[in-house]
C-alpha cells in the first residue's frame, strides 16, 4: 500500500456503511483522517457501526443531522455508491464545493498495483471474471475487486507492485472518482439504466465515461466498435484505443471472423469450442481478450479459459435439466438489454420468467427478442407491463405469480420437453428482494425442489 498523506488530519465523513463504507472508514483512519460515519440504519441493528464505534471511530446512526457538515468541520465525503446525490447532506456538500468520492478512488490512490477497469450496462461481471481467469491461467497473479463483491480498497491495501487488480465498476462508483486511472479500461456497452439514480441517460453515460477520462498514451482504452454510444465515450481519451467487434473483421484489435475469435489478425479459438452460450458472450470475450493482451497474456491461457469457463452465478447460469426442460438463472439481468441478450442465446422455445422493480420504462424494446418465447410468467411491480408486451405479441400462455419460487413451478407446468425455462427479469429486484443474488438463489432452490 502506498503511504499517502493527503488525508492526514482531514475531517472526513463516510456517508453510508455496508461493505464499502466500513472498509473506507477503516482505511481513512489508517491514513490519519479524523473520521465520522453517518448511516441511516439504527445503531442497535447496525453491526458495522458497532464495530467502528468499538474501535473509536465516531458513528452517527438512524438519521442524517442537518448540521453534520458544519459541526464536524467536514472537508471531504466518501459516500456509499448507492446513496443518490439528492441526499440532503450531499446537496449541502455541493453547495459548499466539498469533494464527494467513492471508495474506488481511495483504492486507486493507495494501490501499488495497476488496475484494469471494466464497466458497461451489461456483461461487467462476466468480463471481469474472464479477464481474471485468463491472467491467472497465464501465471500473472491477478487480484479481483470492485462491484463484483470484494471491496476495492481492501484489495488495494494488499496489492503489490507488479500485480494487477481486475476491477468491476458501476456508474455509481465511477461518478465518485476524480484522479482514478486504470492502465486499461473498457465500457462494454451503453443502455438506458439506473435513470432513477442519474436522472438522464447523458448523466449515466457521463459517469460511465469517467473510466476513460484520465488515461494517458501509456494506457489502453478497449472500445466496442459495435456500440456507437459506448464508443463515443472514448472519443476524447488519450489512451491507446483497441477496438473489438462481433460484426466486422478487424486487422487490429479483437473480432469474430469465419467462426473464430481473432486478435490482431491471428486466430485464437473457434467459436464452436467456446463453452459460454450466446452471441452476447462473444462481445464480453472480445473485450476480455483486448484487456488481457495489454498484459502479454498468451493465446494458450485464453483458450484454456474459454474451453472451460461456464459462466458466473446468476448470469445465464445453468441450473439443471428436468424431464427434458433446461432451467437457467439469469437473475443478474436487471434491465431490458440484459434480458434481450439472454433471449438471443437460445433457439429453443423459451418460457420467460420476468418482472421486478418498476423504474418507469416500458418493454417495447424487448419484443423483437421474444420470437422464441412460448409463455411468460410475471411477478413484481412490472408484471402488468410485461403482460401487455406479451399480449401485443400474441403470446397466450401468460401467468402472474407472487414471487420467483412460484414462478419456477408455474413455468414447469406450462413447459414441454425441449423447452428452456429462463429467469431473466429485465428489472431490478428491490421491490421484493434485497439483491438479485437473493432472487436468483431462491429461484434455483425452487427449481431443485421440482420433480
From TrEMBL:
Reaction(s) catalysed by this chain's protein: UDP-N-acetyl-alpha-D-muramoyl-L-alanine + D-glutamate + ATP = UDP-N-acetyl-alpha-D-muramoyl-L-alanyl-D-glutamate + ADP + phosphate + H(+)
GO molecular function: ATP binding; UDP-N-acetylmuramoylalanine-D-glutamate ligase activity
Domain Mur ligase central: start-end pairs: 118-291
UniProt-listed InterPro entries: Mur-like_cat_sf (IPR036565), Mur_ligase_C (IPR004101), Mur_ligase_C_dom_sf (IPR036615), Mur_ligase_cen (IPR013221), MurD (IPR005762)
Gene3D superfamilies tied to this protein: Mur ligase, C-terminal domain, Mur-like, catalytic domain, NAD(P)-binding Rossmann-like Domain
Function: Cell wall formation. Catalyzes the addition of glutamate to the nucleotide precursor UDP-N-acetylmuramoyl-L-alanine (UMA).
Name under which the protein is recorded: UDP-N-acetylmuramoylalanine--D-glutamate ligase
Record organism: Metabacillus mangrovi
Gene: murD
Amino acid at each position: 500500500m502506498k503511504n499517502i498523506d493527503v488525508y492526514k488530519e482531514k475531517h472526513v465523513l463516510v456517508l453510508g456503511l455496508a461493505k464499502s463504507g466500513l472498509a473506507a472508514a477503516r482505511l481513512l483512519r489508517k491514513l490519519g483522517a479524523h473520521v465520522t460515519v453517518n448511516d441511516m440504519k439504527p445503531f442497535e441493528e447496525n453491526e458495522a457501526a458497532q464495530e467502528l464505534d468499538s474501535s473509536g471511530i465516531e458513528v452517527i446512526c438512524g438519521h442524517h443531522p442537518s448540521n453534520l457538515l458544519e459541526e464536524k468541520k467536514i472537508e471531504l465525503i466518501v459516500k456509499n455508491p448507492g446513496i443518490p446525490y439528492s441526499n440532503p447532506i450531499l446537496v449541502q456538500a455541493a453547495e459548499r464545493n466539498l469533494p464527494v468520492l467513492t471508495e474506488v478512488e481511495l483504492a486507486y490512490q493507495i494501490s501499488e498495483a495497476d488496475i484494469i477497469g471494466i464497466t458497461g450496462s451489461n456483461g461487467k461481471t462476466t468480463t471481469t471474471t474472464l479477464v481474471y481467469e485468463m491472467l491467472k491461467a497465464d501465471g500473472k497473479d491477478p487480484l479481483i475487486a470492485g462491484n463484483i463483491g470484494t471491496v476495492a480498497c481492501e484489495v488495494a491495501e494488499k496489492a503489490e507492485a507488479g500485480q494487477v487488480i481486475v476491477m468491476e465498476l458501476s456508474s455509481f462508483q465511477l461518478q465518485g472518482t476524480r484522479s482514478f486511472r486504470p492502465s486499461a479500461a473498457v465500457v462494454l456497452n451503453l443502455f438506458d439504466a439506473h435513470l432513477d439514480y442519474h436522472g438522464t441517460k447523458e448523466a449515466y453515460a457521463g459517469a460511465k465515461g469517467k473510466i476513460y477520462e484520465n488515461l494517458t498514451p501509456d494506457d489502453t482504452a478497449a472500445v466496442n466498435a459495435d456500440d456507437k454510444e459506448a464508443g463515443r465515450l472514448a472519443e476524447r481519451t488519450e489512451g491507446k484505443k483497441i477496438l473489438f467487434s462481433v460484426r466486422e473483421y478487424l486487422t487490429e484489435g479483437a473480432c469474430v471472423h469465419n467462426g473464430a475469435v481473432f486478435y490482431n489478425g491471428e486466430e485464437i479459438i473457434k467459436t464452436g469450442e467456446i463453452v459460454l452460450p450466446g452471441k452476447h458472450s462473444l462481445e464480453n470475450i472480445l473485450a476480455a481478450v483486448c484487456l488481457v493482451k495489454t498484459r502479454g497474456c498468451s493465446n494458450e491461457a485464453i483458450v484454456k479459459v474459454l474451453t472451460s469457463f461456464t459462466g458466473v452465478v446468476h448470469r445465464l447460469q445453468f441450473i439443471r435439466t428436468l424431464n427434458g426442460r433446461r432451467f437457467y438463472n439469469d437473475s443478474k439481468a436487471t434491465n431490458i438489454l440484459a434480458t434481450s441478450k439472454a433471449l438471443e442465446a437460445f433457439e429453443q422455445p423459451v418460457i420467460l420468467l420476468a418482472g421486478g422493480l418498476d423504474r418507469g420504462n416500458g418493454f417495447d424494446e424487448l419484443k423483437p427478442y421474444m420470437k422464441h418465447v412460448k409463455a411468460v410468467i410475471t411477478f413484481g411491480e412490472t408484471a402488468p407491463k410485461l403482460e401487455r408486451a406479451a399480449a401485443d405479441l400474441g403470446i397466450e400462455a401468460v401467468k402472474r405469480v407472487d414471487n420467483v419460487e412460484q414462478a419456477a413451478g408455474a413455468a414447469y407446468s406450462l413447459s414441454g420437453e425441449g423447452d428452456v425455462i429462463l429467469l431473466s427479469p429485465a428489472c431490478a429486484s428491490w421491490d421484493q428482494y434485497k439483491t438479485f443474488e437473493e432472487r436468483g438463489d431462491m429461484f434455483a432452490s425452487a427449481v431443485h425442489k421440482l420433480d
